[in-house]
């Protein structure tokens, strides 16, 4: 029965469409959102111009690759929903989750489609914004043009969105077990932001063997590295296998926490 | 006015102490970000001796000043600044206008969070750490730093206030807030990295350089009294502009009924 529920995508697609409509009602928000995608790496541009301009290098980065890296990683990370949907945790605490349990939908998938609908306009404008910026800064940007690698980077980005969302979803359903605090979400988002490689590229970060085990690198560092041509096909394949392992681990963890959480859950009048 | 403020601060303090877990995790988030920026500069300074004439200790003082200013603004004025657009949107400004108070000042200080000022500690610590290697640090330069930082705080807040007054014309101005907060990222880095037109803009229309680099240059003896005079003139100019915007905006305001 549950398989049938998950295969029938019509309800999920409707939820996605609805969220797109909602986003389109606030068109200016999507334009203003560009400031988050563009401004922080622009500040980095001026900093690194003073450090690496004129042929200097840091690790395997020269001026062009580090600037491109920061623009790309900011693009990927700022477009990843690390907190999923805070409403999920709130509904567990205030009991509104009960309404969901009666519906013939998969809660995780439903919210995944909702968040995709809510973000897809932002993704679209961000891509246009960053392409325009790259055009103006073309003398300072290095992007490899191998179409397969561009495609792989795109796939990893989508994968990163899945990982980011699942991480946020897990944080939310922990409300079954612990008292929900918004500052814990802020803290968890900060960790994800840093370990995605937003402040320091993970390969020049001390103890990088440790950060390279974690899944956050797929939310920024890996797709950016592929686009600046640092990964061979073999490395991409290895990363893909590691990524698939994380998908399995996170999916199993989500299912486990959801099922056990429901057992612990006590609804009003129940 | 003072009595009302005292009561507001009392209530804020009580509500703050209820959310102790929030305090801990907000503190950890801030520490983590500061730590990684320090680490970034450590990695950079393994490669270069200075960034545009600023050595590692000086950059740390700058970074600490950035976080200190950000927290001072956040705890003292940020929530109050958000209130004006809300009140204008709800058409409830007349509830304040009939009171015998300075309305912009009251709104600005109505959400003040004095207990939350403990969050300046990481910034202060980074400044202290950066200054520990600086020679010839005098009491006068510390006092001038405090004066310069206060001016930066007021200029920053007044610019944000000018943005809030736009709500009389455009209603929802939250997005402009976020853009300005994003732009303040530029204040993390030494002033000398900005050249040409962008430097001119950051000294005048969007005075990012003035916010953090000026106080830091003063305490490090990298600048002279002219920096303070410039800050004072900028403060007066923006104060004048904000006053005009408030008065003009009020004329456009339409309350309920």
List the SSEs and their pairings:
The complex is a heterodimer of chains A (270) and B (257).
Chain A: H1 2-7, H2 10-25, H3 27-32, H4 34-52, E1 57-58, E2 61-62, H5 63-78, H6 86-94, H7 97-101, H8 107-136, H9 147-173, H10 182-195, H11 208-211, H12 221-227, H13 233-264
Antiparallel strand pairs in A: 1-2
Chain B: H1 2-18, H2 20-47, H3 56-89, H4 94-97, H5 103-109, H6 121-131, H7 139-165, H8 167-170, H9 174-183, H10 196-203, H11 208-219, H12 225-252
Q: How would you spell out the order of helices and strands of chain B?
A: HHHHHHHHHHHH
Structural class of the helices, strands and pairings of chain A? mainly alpha
The biggest sheet of chain B, with number of strands, parallel, antiparallel or mixed sense and barrel status, is:
none
Helix content of chain B: over 70%
- Classify the beta-strand content of chain A into a percent band: under 5%
Summed over residues and divided by their number, the pLDDT of chain A gives a mean of 90
Q: Determine the most extensive contact between two protein chains.
A: A-B, 30 and 35 residues
Distance N terminus to C terminus of chain A?
25 Å
Shape of chain B: globular
Low-confidence stretches of chain A are none
Rg of chain A: 20 Å
Question: How many distinct helices of chain A?
Answer: 13
* Topology of chain A as a string of helices (H) and strands (E): HHHHEEHHHHHHHHH
Number of helices of chain B: 12
Quaternary assembly? heterodimer
Descriptive key words:
heterodimer, A: 270 residues, mainly alpha, two-stranded antiparallel ribbon, B: 257 residues, 12 helices
Descriptive overview:
The complex is a heterodimer of chains A (270) and B (257). Chain A has 270 residues and is an all-alpha fold. Chain A has 13 helices and two strands; from the N terminus they run H-H-H-H-E-E-H-H-H-H-H-H-H-H-H. Chain A has helices at residues 2-7, 10-25, 27-32, 34-52, 63-78, 86-94, 97-101, 107-136, 147-173, 182-195, 208-211, 221-227, 233-264; strands spanning 57-58, 61-62. In chain A, helix 5 packs across helix 12. Chain A is globular and about 65 Å long. The two termini of chain A are 25 Å apart. Chain B is built from twelve helices and no strands. Chain B has 257 residues and is mainly α. The two termini of chain B are 28 Å apart.
